[in-house]
Design a protein that fits this description.
single chain, alpha/beta, eight-stranded parallel barrel, TIM Barrel, two-stranded antiparallel ribbon, 18% strand
Amino acid sequence: MHPTVAKLQHKLIVSCQARAGSPLYGPRFMAAMAKAAERGGAGGIRANGAEDIRAIRAVTQLPIIGIDKRLDPQGNVIITPDLESARRVVEAGADLVALSCAFYQRLNLPELHALIREIQAELGVPVMADCSTLEEGLWAAEAGADLLASTLSGYTPATQGLGQGPDLELVALLARQTSVPVVAEGRIWTPQEARAALEAGAYAVVVGTAITNPTEITRRFVEALP
């Protein structure tokens, strides 16, 4: 097991990302968010783009899962589509690269297999496969991914409409059917859900919006009031 992966066992990884238009958009704010997460006990950070990652690396030595969100030919966001996007985040300070393994975006699986191997060999970092289905996760495990994540469950054509909570069924299935560590990510809103993810077999848990998106957190409180 890669040393970076070993550091993440049973840890909370906080996803520090903000979309353009958010009051918190920009490297300075994401670095502050990451530092706050570290003070709260986070064991790792997930961040998007070289600028944010570079700013976060300047304030923390926590492991950083780096991604580079781009648009695919259909105009959909794809996570770390190629070796150059992976190289950018590693050079900025990421310790691990996450990429989309959603089959609807990755039509050339041999090419994706080669990309996973190239990132590991040329950049010297482990790879986390962001998946939406059991089939994708099993494929990624066979392809040599160091971690499997449920990140994309509920956000692909094959998995839309799964509800408001995390896909713990996918986490459990992946944990039972592969020997690759599984990361629970996506729609985890409470500490209880994070704990349930570990009990379902998750190696680590990623939480983003519930910690780092004040607008959405506020909206949920407002909607709960009469």
